[in-house]
Write a structure and sequence with these properties.
Number of domains: 1
Helix content: 40-55%
Structural class: alpha/beta
CATH topology: TIM Barrel
Order of helices and strands: HEHEHEHEHEHEHEHEH
Oligomer: single chain
Radius of gyration: 17 Å
Strand order of the largest sheet: 7-6-5-4-3-2-1-8
CATH superfamily: Alanine racemase
CATH architecture: Alpha-Beta Barrel
Number of strands: 8
CATH class: Alpha Beta
Shape: globular
Length: 227
């Protein structure tokens, strides 16, 4: 086994242990391997170890890897900031877009996704803690955008994605994630297709899972330091 395979095995065991701590088990937790600035060879090693979903932050870097690894049945997620002019490339190459934060982007993704392909899966990026340097919507705007996305063809809204402020204390992490999960519950109550609360990364995924995350995005723990 490669070191990446060992890391994935250890991580999956830790995810399972953390899930067992939930008072009510509502979701299976999906692991998305964040592969930005990691080589195609590392992604291939992770795939061979059983990891099938990967996330990229930058459109061109992601497309290059998608083409390089076209022989693999990978599910590709876009998690980075989106420029309107890049929507066509994203819609043509990715399976999920987790960083939708305005209607214009959702509309362009919808227009660029061909009806012959499965719908592009979308998450709304939320920013509930007023961090000016980060993209994302506050709760009221996210609920409004969700309603608008429901009317678009060729895309399907699956939930929300969050990147809350970095906290080192587990209790502080949990408080933030609980607030994000509360918004997710509001959306899930309105729309039956909502099933994804994407929150938690290498430094806080355990707290995120305990508070209801159904999808975590982990890079360094799997791949090590970025190239």
């Amino acid at each position: 086994m490669t070191s990446i395979a060992f890391q994935l095995e250890d991580l999956q065991q830790e995810i399972a242990k953390t899930c067992a701590k939930r008072q009510i088990f509502k979701h299976n937790v999906r692991l998305i391997a964040v592969s930005k600035r990691h080589s195609g060879e590392k992604i291939r090693q992770a795939y061979q170890a059983g990891q099938k979903a990967f996330a990229e932050n930058f459109v061109q870097e992601g497309i290059e890897k998608i083409q390089q690894l076209s022989d693999l049945d990978v599910e590709w997620h876009m998690i980075g900031a989106i420029q309107s002019r890049k929507c066509k490339d994203i819609a043509e190459h990715f399976d999920w877009v987790q960083s939708v934060d305005r209607l214009k982007v959702a509309q362009k993704l919808s227009q660029a996704r061909t009806p012959e392909r499965p719908p592009l899966q979308l998450c709304i990026q939320v920013n509930l803690f007023n961090e000016q340097q980060k993209a994302g919507l506050e709760a009221k705007a996210a609920l409004q955008l969700a309603e608008q996305i429901q009317a678009l063809p060729n895309v399907q809204l699956r939930g929300i994605m969050a990147l809350p402020p970095k906290q080192t204390a587990p209790q502080a992490q949990k408080q933030q994630f609980a607030e994000i999960y509360a918004l997710y519950q509001q959306l899930a109550a309105r729309y039956p297709n909502i099933d994804t609360c994407s929150m938690g990364m290498s430094g806080d995924y355990q707290a995120a899972i305990e508070q209801g995350s159904s999808m975590i995005r982990v890079g360094t723990t799997i791949f090590g330091a970025r190239d």
